[in-house]
């Protein structure tokens, strides 16, 4: 019999009426001949209310007790859902994470799923029950209750669909699918009918709150098609699957991470291993770092800037101070009033001028870009928080994301999953479900780096630089712009194909002169090392492993960029081969 997982988010179970409505939907699916597993979130704003309650008795509540408390929200809603189904005359049974056997690691508030028991659920389903699973929770080895992080019920749902080899995984929510950006912020946003795992993973981790990003990791790893749809209607929503709607689109979505904070460490010795001392302490606290930009100034000192979630700024600063005590630095600055605006698209890897368009649109609106990082499929800029929503709307408009695609889209049809099932079961043997997996490590020795230093901190500079570069037909790969130092100047570096270096330097020199930048330097001999896999940013340790492997071999990092599917570092060309070997060794245990 086909098996279907239906997940209902907080707003879809916010009232008794809504619970009954969800119950009817599940019953209907069962009557249509499916076994049904429901995954339910806490009602409405329950989780927020519980957090507030905790804050009233303790400003820094112990994480274990927080999970004990937060898990109760879902326990209420599963029990009510089971009662609702009984009242409609059907069989149902509710289960907490512990009762199912959702085993996690012990990192409270952001626990990762290690394994899920299926026997109890299977037995109950075979007895004709609708099984109602509490989302967002599990237990660790010592039977402590853990939670998966805000929005984690999505991850429970997709993980259950994976282990049960469900035929469908439906996510019922208060929007009718995935939009080109948050429709609450940009009303012109358009619903997409289908989006690829990689794009969704990137969008979710860059702030598209419609799906918990780790749920997409599960989808990708275990090949679970995810259907995001409205709990208010029967209209089909958005399919999240391997094949995107339009793989050629330069930009297919935009996202905003509103609550970011920036940290800059100025004047640290530019020798291998210094940033490692800092980042490993941050990773030890399980804080995810993004937009890492490092630039080497005069006299062999470097500045490193990066962003962390705003609510983890204090903990991150504590980690940074510890690291700085060991390696020494001229100073630490931070700013908790910033936000990150990003565009994502598979097609940008093959097109020129995408970054330039984004920078130009922001410049025309007078929005200052404080930092830039890119990867193959995304461009992120850091801006002032009070300008971020405007920035999002502007880039959404610039890439015409509100317009329906003109070319017809092939409807998505499920593949036969017979062989996949065996493959997935084999992949599940002996691993923890959310463990890091790396599929590839690559060396690219065919690029060169151009760096413009002393770039004034004013709107429109990046736009002018890349306007000229794009006009010259140069294909830019990585772009990083550091945060301006105390003297108010930033450094802008980018990589280009070797054969375009001469032209790029020429263009850069002209622009630098017209904008009164300090100087242009370049290196024809760089090596770009890339590690690709699943969930690289949410596994805080990946960048650290790379830094450590390279620093142990005395290799210095020139540029870094990260995405959910890939981390790239640029090193001296002469060290490319050696770096590659180091990385292969460092990741040998997680290569698949
Ligand atoms: P649930 O409680 O069902 O899990 P969430 O509030 O977590 O629902 O997620 C749904 C919300 O996500 C929507 O109301 C919408 O405002 C927001 N959202 C953010 N980005 C997007 C996007 N790209 N597409 C659709 N919704 C988005
Ligand atoms: N109730 C949890 C939260 O609000 C989990 C979820 O809804 O996905 O974050
Ligand atoms: Mg949610």
Plain-language structure description:
This protein has 2 domains: 3-174, 3-Layer(aba) Sandwich (Carbamate kinase); 254-399 and 441-590, VC0802-like (2-Layer Sandwich), CATH 3.30.2130.10. The model has no long low-confidence stretch (mean pLDDT 92). It is built from 17 helices and 26 strands. Strand 1 (3-8), helix 1 (16-31) and strand 2 (35-40) form a beta-alpha-beta unit. With 592 residues, it is α+β, with helices and mostly antiparallel strands.
Output the CATH class name of the largest domain. Answer: Alpha Beta
**DSSP, total strands:** 26
Trace the largest sheet across and list its strands. 14-15-13-16-18-17-21-22-20-23
Largest sheet: 10 strands, antiparallel
The CATH topology annotation of the largest domain reads as: VC0802-like
Q: Mean pLDDT, nearest integer? A: 92
Number of helices: 17
Taken as a percent bin, the fraction of beta residues is 25-35%
State the distance separating the first and last CA atoms.
32 Å
What binds here, in terms of ligands, is:
adenosine-5'-diphosphate, aspartic acid, magnesium ion
In terms of per-residue confidence, which ranges show pLDDT below 50 for 5 or more consecutive residues? none
Q: Helix/strand/pairing class, anyone? A: alpha+beta
Radius of gyration: 24 Å
The tally of structural domains comes to: 2
The CATH homologous superfamily of the largest domain: VC0802-like
Instruction: Name the CATH architecture of the largest domain.
Output: 2-Layer Sandwich
Shape: globular
* Helix content class: 25-40%
Protein name: aspartate kinase
GO molecular function, one term: ATP binding
Family: Belongs to the aspartokinase family.
Enzyme class: transferase
């Amino acid at each position: 019999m086909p098996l279907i997982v239906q997940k209902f988010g907080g707003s879809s179970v916010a009232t008794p009426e809504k619970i009954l409505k969800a119950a009817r939907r599940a019953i209907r699916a069962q009557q249509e001949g499916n076994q049904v597993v429901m995954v339910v979130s806490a009602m409405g704003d329950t989780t927020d209310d519980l957090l507030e309650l905790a804050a009233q008795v303790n400003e820094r509540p112990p994480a274990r007790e927080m999970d004990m408390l937060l898990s109760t929200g879902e326990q209420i809603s599963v029990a009510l859902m089971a009662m609702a189904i009984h009242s409609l005359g059907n069989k149902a049974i509710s289960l907490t994470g512990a009762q199912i056997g959702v085993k996690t690691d012990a990192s409270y508030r952001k626990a990762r799923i290690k394994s899920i028991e299926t026997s109890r659920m299977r037995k109950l389903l075979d007895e004709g029950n609708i099984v109602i699973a509490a989302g967002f929770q599990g237990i660790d080895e010592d039977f402590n209750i853990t939670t998966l992080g805000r929005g984690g019920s999505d991850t429970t749902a997709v993980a259950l669909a994976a282990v049960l080899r469900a035929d469908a995984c439906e996510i019922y929510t208060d929007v009718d699918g995935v939009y080109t950006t948050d429709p609450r912020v940009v009303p012109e946003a358009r619903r997409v009918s289908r989006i690829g795992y990689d794009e969704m993973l990137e969008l979710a981790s860059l702030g598209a709150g419609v799906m918990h990003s780790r749920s997409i990791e599960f989808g990708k790893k275990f090949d679970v098609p995810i259907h995001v749809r409205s709990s208010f209607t029967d209209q089909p929503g958005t399919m999240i699957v391997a094949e995107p709607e339009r793989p050629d689109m330069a930009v297919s979505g935009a996202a905003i991470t509103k609550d970011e904070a920036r940290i800059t460490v100025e004047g640290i010795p530019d020798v291998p291993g210094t940033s490692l001392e800092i980042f490993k302490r941050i990773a030890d606290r399980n804080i995810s770092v993004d937009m890492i930009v490092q630039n080497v100034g005069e006299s062999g000192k470097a500045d490193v800037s990066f962003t962390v979630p705003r609510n983890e700024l204090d903990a991150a600063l504590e980690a940074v101070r510890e690291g700085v005590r060991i390696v020494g630095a001229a100073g630490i600055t931070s700013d908790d009033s910033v936000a990150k605006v990003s565009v994502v698209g598979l097609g940008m890897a093959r097109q020129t001028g995408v970054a330039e368009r984004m920078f130009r649109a922001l410049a025309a609106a007078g929005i200052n870009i404080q930092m830039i990082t890119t990867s193959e499929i995304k461009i992120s800029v850091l801006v002032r928080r009070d300008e971020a929503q405007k920035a999002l709307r502007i880039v959404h408009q610039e890439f015409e994301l509100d317009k329906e695609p003109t070319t017809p889209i092939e409807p998505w049809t499920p593949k036969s999953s017979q062989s996949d099932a065996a493959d997935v079961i084999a992949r599940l043997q002996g691993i923890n479900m959310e463990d890091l997996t790396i599929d590839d490590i690559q060396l690219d020795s065919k690029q060169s780096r151009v760096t413009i230093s002393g770039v004034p901190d004013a709107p429109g500079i990046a736009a002018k630089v890349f306007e000229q570069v794009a006009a010259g037909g140069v294909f830019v790969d990585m772009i990083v712009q550091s945060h301006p130092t105390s003297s108010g100047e930033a450094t802008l570096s980018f990589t280009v194909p070797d054969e375009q270096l001469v032209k790029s330097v020429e263009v850069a020199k002209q622009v630098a002169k017209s904008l009164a930048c300090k100087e242009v330097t370049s290196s024809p001999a760089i090596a770009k090392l890339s590690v690709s896999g699943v969930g690289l940013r949410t596994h805080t340790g990946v960048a650290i492993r790379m830094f450590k492997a390279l620093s142990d071999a005395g290799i210095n990092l020139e540029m870094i960029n990260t995405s959910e599917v890939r981390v790239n570092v640029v090193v001296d060309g002469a060290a490319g081969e050696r770096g590659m070997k180091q990385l292969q060794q460092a990741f040998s245990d997680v290569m698949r």
